[in-house]
Amino acid sequence: MLKGIVISNVSDLYHIETEAGSVYNCNARGKFKSNEISPVTGDKVEIEIIDDEKKTGIINKIEDRTNYIKRPKMANLSQMILVVSAKLPKPDLELLDKQLVYAEYLNIHPIICFNKVDLVDDELIENMANVYRKIGYTVIKTNAKEEVGIDTLKQMLKGHITAFSGNSGVGKSTLINGIFGKDKAQEGLVSHKNKRGKNTTTQVYLYKIEDNTYIADTPGFSTLDISEIESEYLCHYFVEFVPYIEKCEFVGCSHVKEQNCGIKMGLEAGKIDKGRYDRYCKIYQDLKEKEERKW
Ligand SMILES: Nc1nc2c(ncn2[C@@H]2O[C@H](COP(=O)(O)OP(=O)(O)OP(=O)(O)O)[C@@H](O)[C@H]2O)c(=O)[nH]1
Ligand SMILES: [Mg+2]
Ligand SMILES: [Zn+2]
């Protein structure tokens, strides 16, 4: 019996990387009876070797997951680097907040990475960064093109399965290539695109950086869908709102239109950032509309 991690999965075939670093082609033993699940990328598994020369085996056991993401399917993602570009494209803080909500919801450790810092005044970035530092998030600044800040970023990956997310063009691939070094980048490591330049697949691939440290290449994260989160719970994932929720007069206060709202009091007292609050309202309305369309 060998322990390993699923680094990729195409229909019934799983690539398992063992602790020693060999990769086995494995099938899964049907559904796993006790809980009716199939292995997905990121799963920690036990395999039984069928042929050690051909590197084939069977997955016998899936270890308990720390989390599970439906789209793209993966398990045990422990960290997300939320990449925001300072310019070209301009910072999309609504997407950043949505991603933070999603990370909080799934219990994934988020790190905010302002990239392309070479293109704007530092003051502009600091103003944005401080809003997020104040509420407890780690914020780093990078210039991926000149590999500034890459070492700091690399340090933060240790012991994690990390995914990069953010709008197209913010510099995710450039950052990842910087982490792996130029050679791997030329192998087309982080592009699974067809001729039209579209992502062809929702497959997730894990790439090992060092022991217990992987980068997840997840095409699906650019168009982040958080509609599985119910609008009424959204406020709990805006971490700095939480202490104010109990001050709301109405149980189930949406914090948008109600009077005597704890969040609004926090806002007026300058404890909650206006931009964050406005983006909360926007995301709340979007979720609400989607919920109404469902019925
Ligand atoms: N000036 C500057 N340009 C950068 C920086 N990082 C990336 N770029 C450039 O921005 C462009 C987009 O970078 P990519 O790494 O391809 O962006 P991406 O996030 O992977 O984009 P998608 O794959 O479309 O999601 C490229 O032309 C990079 O050279 C940076 O720190 N500074
Ligand atoms: Mg890319
Ligand atoms: Zn309220």
Biggest sheet details: 6 strands, mixed
Record the strand order, biggest sheet: 10-9-8-11-13-12
**CATH topology assignment of the largest domain:** Rossmann fold
Name the CATH superfamily classification of the largest domain: P-loop containing nucleotide triphosphate hydrolases
The strand count comes to 13
| Count of alpha/pi helices | 8
CATH class of the largest domain: Alpha Beta
Uncertain segments are: 190-196
Terminal CA distance reads 49 Å
**CATH-defined architecture of the largest domain:** 3-Layer(aba) Sandwich
Shape: globular
**Could you say how many structural domains there are in total?**
3
Judged by helices, strands and strand pairing, the structural class is alpha/beta
**Which ligands are bound?**
guanosine-5'-triphosphate, magnesium ion, zinc ion
CA-atom Rg in angstroms: 21 Å
Q: Care to describe what's here?
A:
The chain is an alpha/beta fold. It folds into three domains: about 60 residues, OB fold (Dihydrolipoamide Acetyltransferase, E2P), CATH 2.40.50.140; about 150 residues, P-loop containing nucleotide triphosphate hydrolases (Rossmann fold), CATH 3.40.50.300; about 60 residues, Ribonucleotide Reductase Protein R1, domain 1 (Orthogonal Bundle), CATH 1.10.40.50. Helices cover about 25% and strands about 25% of the residues. The chain is built from eight helices and 13 strands. The strands form three sheets. The protein has a six-stranded mixed beta sheet with strand order 10-9-8-11-13-12, sandwiched between helices. It has a five-stranded mixed barrel with strand order 1-2-3-5-4. Strands 6-7 form a two-stranded antiparallel ribbon. A hairpin with a 2-residue loop joins strand 1 and strand 2. The longest helix has 21 residues. The chain is globular, with a radius of gyration of 21 Å. The protein starts with a strand and ends with a helix. About 0% of the residues have low confidence. Bound molecules: guanosine-5'-triphosphate, magnesium ion and zinc ion. The site of guanosine-5'-triphosphate (GTP) has 16 residues, from helix 4. The site of zinc ion (ZN) has 7 residues, from helix 7.
